[in-house]
Design brief:
about 25% helix, about 250 residues, 7 helices, alpha/beta, globular, 5-stranded mixed beta sheet, binds S-adenosyl-L-homocysteine, Precorrin-4 C(11)-methyltransferase
């Protein structure tokens, strides 16, 4: 059995109980060493064989899983955040299907959620934005033609940009064509880690501030007026509003 596990954003206490139990009892652990906090593996049992997938290609990862399976060993495949977001676990699951190897997926706290927590903000403010776009800049992985940043930006929704903090000059120039140039932006480096850093600004100055802070990778850029202070109060907790669980009162 192979268990794909979302290791969470960094803080080892943000690993799910289920994920931790599997890691702590696994015979073989393959973890994404470039981003997974090694402390997540601190409870691994003695004798567990640990591989860092940063130096392995897909065939090598699958070979380790195949070999372990043939010996009846339990494999924990540990991805950063949640594997469903830029985790590249689909291609591994498809190979396991071909090989007839059983697997399960244990979700994790994605870095975009740890980022909101670090900022103490809500992505979906009434009257501001009710939509969250998770995307990235085009790098070596091309963007599908209908998902260019400039097209996604037209909605002025809350936007969360992964993998791209090294391209902030270009990113903010594109976003300025669709959002107000003074739209607030925050960059969170290593959300939930001990060396977490937060840089705030707007679309005109964020690139230079992030450069000055020496941030080049492992950061998320979040854009939108949800970072500001103007919004409507929610209907959910509006005292005059009747919900399934509560009758509204009149003032
Ligand atoms: N599956 C992961 C994302 C993997 S892609 C998740 O759910 O979070 C790797 C990118 O995620 C990094 O380039 C960075 O943009 C972002 N990232 C991962 N961990 C982060 C963290 N702790 N703080 C800020 N950004 C992070």
């Amino acid at each position: 059995m192979v268990s794909f596990i979302g290791a969470g954003p960094g803080d080892p206490e943000l690993l799910t109980i289920k994920g931790k139990k599997i890691i702590d009892s696994a015979d073989v652990i393959i973890y994404a060493g470039s981003l997974v906090n090694p402390q997540v593996l601190a409870g691994a049992k003695e004798g567990a064989v640990i591989y860092n997938s940063a130096t392995m290609h897909l065939d090598e990862v699958i070979d380790v899983m195949k070999d372990a399976e043939s010996k009846g060993l339990k494999v924990a495949r540990v991805h950063t955040g949640d594997p469903a977001i830029y985790g590249a676990h689909r291609e591994q699951m498809d190979r396991l299907d071909e090989l007839g190897i059983e697997y399960e997926v244990i979700p994790g706290v994605s870095s975009f959620l740890a980022t909101a927590a670090a900022l103490k903000k809500e992505y979906t403010l009434p009257g501001v934005s009710q939509t969250v776009i998770l995307t990235r800049m085009e790098g070596r992985t091309p963007m599908p033609p209908k998902e260019k940043l400039i097209d996604l930006a037209q909605h002025n929704a809350t936007m969360i940009i992964f993998l791209s903090v090294g391209m902030l000059d270009e990113m903010s120039a594109i976003l300025r064509q669709a959002y107000r140039p003074t739209t607030p932006v925050a960059v969170v480096y290593k959300a939930s880690w001990e060396d977490q850093k937060i840089v705030v600004g707007d679309l005109t100055n964020i690139a230079e501030r992030v450069k000055a802070a020496g941030i080049h990778k492992t950061a998320l850029t979040v854009v939108g007026d949800f970072l500001g202070d103007e919004y409507e109060l929610s209907k959910l907790y509006d005292k005059t509003f009747t919900t399934e669980f509560r009758k509204g009162v009149t003032d």
